[in-house]
What we know:
300 residues, 8-stranded antiparallel sheet
Amino acid sequence: MVSRMRMFTRSNRLTCIGALCAAACLLTAGASSNCQQPSNAPMAQGGAPAPIAFDQVTFHPDTADDTGSGFLWWGIPNSWIFANVSSLNLIANAYGLGMHQVIGATGWAETDRYGMYATMDREKFEAFKTLPIDEQLRQQRLMMQTVLADKYQLKAHLETREMPVYELVVANGGPKLREKVYEGRPGASFFQPRDWWGNYGTMEDLSNKLSGPTGGVVIDKTGLGTRTFVYFLKWTSDSQSGMAGGTPSIFTALEEQLGLKLVPATESVEVLVIDHIEKPSTGGELAGGGPGLEDASKPR
Length: 300
């Protein structure tokens, strides 16, 4: 499995657009609106369909040269793969947040990189594809939260804090995005330094990704909801100045290439506060223990 990960890491371009992940196996209920009690169980909304699980997970350190490249991808078609991804990135992704909305991460969580290869039963995946896109997104996050709780012994709680943010809005002239729906694939991330190629997902997902290069919290205000898009974005500088060395900054590139703008604001936003985290256990396989997806897809 590790060799298969290396094969994907070395690829310069992937022609498949995948999803971030699929489902989860543990569920907790009950939380206040402003602050939740520390927990290492996945954070699900009360009354939502029960989460499902990966059947097998292999997790390992990524010792390839740190070129800044990596990906999170659903493919082949019922496996979830990531490569060259920091723990902080994984935690933010698992909770549907930007990296600057994760509070209390240790230094190694930003620098140490990991890879994972996980699979779910083909029949489960076929049922997963029938779920609405918002439920697919919810399930994929719960699944990764389960992996984090197991591998990192992660305990965390959600709070609401007021802080400076960027609002992602549609620029004058409208969005320059190609709408696309890939059945059973709510999103994918493929990245090189200042070069995102073949990315796919909602504008909320894009907002969370932008937290890294902008250095702050980004909130989706595009009004495009759960519609999914394929997009490519290339820039040279993370500076707010329009051009750097004759090439666009992230702010200029967003407007010129995607028809979107970042507008400074102050808002109350959700943050994840880490109460406990350990360097992850690696290797081995984790068998899923949650209910079948056919049960998860039924309203409760």
